[in-house]
Amino acid sequence: MHTFLHTKFQFNIQNSIPKASNILIALSSGQDSLCLLKLAHDCLLNKSYNIKSIYIDHQWKKDSLFHLKHLINLTKTKRIPLAIYQIKKLALSESIARENRYKILIQHAIKENCTAIITGHNNNDKVETFFNNIIRGSSLNGINGLTLNKKLNKRISIVRPLINFSKSEITWFCRLFYLPIWSDITNYNFYIQRNRLRHEILPYLQNYFNPQVQKNITNFINFCCIDNEYIQENTLKLYFKSINKNVISLNLKKICNQHTVLQKRVIRLFFYYHFQKQINKNYIKKILHMCNIQKNTVIYFEKLSIYYVNNSIYIKK
Questions:
Q1: Transmembrane residues, as ranges (predicted)?
Q2: pTM for this structure?
């Protein structure tokens, strides 16, 4: 049976992953992953794609072994190979667990020569991530943490083909095909901030402020995305006009008469591209101040010496 979600899934994949690619599916046994597995089986298997799957067991749950057997049976019936990683050292925070998970995903993708990792993140996850980023004080650049397609390195992309699926659509799909969902008890642990957002804050906003809050926030994220793309394009144009092609140098005079947003982004890009360092706002202010005082000077950032000479900054390690 072909549903409208099959059509959405195929469209997202075709716009993100070239044919004949090796694909790695990151699984749990929740609704999202089972929906993803079913769609991948129906739309990708034996259709110019080579599919493998991976499950990372953080061993947070008492029933993790039964959970594992359940997944093994599911992937066997779909004829999709499954790799299993068990993390022996328990991560005490969600962010550390996520970092460990992505490291394993990338390492396994490299090992299996996969160019795309697909996950079951949906539109509700996108909204929850938006709230998490806002709470952490994110800028416009970091508001949309979950996109359809994101490059992890030169060879590997992470693709989220369910990112425009709502939770209710996924629930409907799982019920339609009688998919054997395994309830994950960690999803109801309110010490995890995301769970509190999911089960308390978002339902509260829907009930007492606006029933369409998820849809409206999604629209807002999409508008921010478009604005951010425009700013990024202008940042790159200004960056290439301001750098010295022969030495590691940035001409501050060329950026100082531009908007503050572009100034800050160009400086961040310069330090990240050349030194893989995230420079903070205090040092950005100091660097821009160099331009204003028009005086040869030096400041120190971590193990770098930043020299201001003749309207440009030069870096010495």
A1: none
A2: 0.84
Q: Classify domain 4-209 by CATH number.
A: 3.40.50.620
Is 129 within 8 Å of 87 (Cβ atoms)? no
Helix axes 213-242, 123-135, angle to 10 degrees: 60
Q: Which residue has the tokens 């093994």?
A: 72
Judge whether 254 and 242 are in contact, CB under 8 Å: yes
Strands 157-159 and 82-86 come out as unpaired
Amino acid letter for position 149: N
* CA–CA separation, 196 and 52 (whole Å): 33
| Domain 239-316, CATH among 3.30.465, 2.50.20, 1.10.3470, 3.30.420 | 3.30.465
Long-range own/partner contacts, residues 220-229 (CB < 8 A, 24 or more apart): 221/126, 221/127, 221/130, 221/143, 221/144, 224/140, 224/143, 224/144, 225/144, 225/147, 227/140, 228/140, 228/141, 228/143, 228/144
Cα separation of 166 and 216, whole Å?
13
Cβ-based burial of 195 (10 A; exposed 0-12, middle 13-18, buried ≥19) = middle
